[in-house]
Amino acid sequence: MSGWRKPLSASAALPAQPGRPTDTRALTQVLFQELFALERGTPQHDRVRAALIEANLPLVRYAAARFRSRNEPMEDVIQVGTIGLINAIDRFDPTRGVQFPTFAMPTVVGEIKRYFRDNVRTVHVPRRLHELWVQVNGATEDLTTLHGRTPTTAEVAERLCVSEDEVRQCREAGRSYHAASLEAAQEGEGTPGLLDRIGYEDPELTGVEHRDLVRHLLVQLPEREQRILLLRYYNNLTQSQISAELGVSQMHVSRLLSRSFAKLRSANRIDS
């Protein structure tokens, strides 16, 4: 990152004055009182402002540490957070009775989050491809203006004196700048998003396992008991209809069903 220079230390930015506190919170309050008494743009105003920035850099480092897992150079994150700190200093009004750290922290964190949202790739790519991606974008814009159309890969490669494969690779890397939402439409309006193309768990899979288990247990029953179960639970016949079909009493059908269930439960416990 560029465009921001680390300010002088508070001790270097301001001459020592008797009675000036060394505690950061108290020093910040004193410096803001001095800052509001000075005219903007004057050297003294700039020195007090620089001292305020330096005195509150620990606040920035604390906020930046929350983003350590993002694998971005911590120096860059601290510099972005310092921009938020400067904005907070310029907007802070000590007469409102709010402590400066309480006021500044959301601004610092917000600036860092904005940096990750707008400038950091979702997927990290080699630095060489990142630098070439910038050049390819620039060459593409120049050639589009020159020819009045989108340039081909060969034209961009010739302009940059690189191979077509390198141009294609860096364009592919450029697509990793932001992650696409799984619910976002692809290739045009109305087209299903990625989420709609991902396989889902078929609820019938559980039924397959159950049917296989039942089939395994049924073959262990006598043939007549298998037939009774099939008539009752697959053909949905009542016990009276089954008794008429087999020429036996309804009571006998009921006893056979109860005996079959007992055998199935026992076989299931053994298999388990």
Automatic annotation (TrEMBL):
SUPFAM superfamilies tied to this protein: Sigma2 domain of RNA polymerase sigma factors, Sigma3 and sigma4 domains of RNA polymerase sigma factors
Record keywords: DNA-binding, Sigma factor, Transcription, Transcription regulation
Keyword Transcription: yes
RNA polymerase sigma-70 domain: residues covered: 76-89
Start-end of Low complexity biased regions: 7-16
Annotated stretches, region: Disordered: 1-21
Gene Ontology biological process terms from the UniProt entry: DNA-templated transcription initiation
Entry GO MF terms: DNA binding; sigma factor activity
Name of the protein: RNA polymerase sigma factor SigF
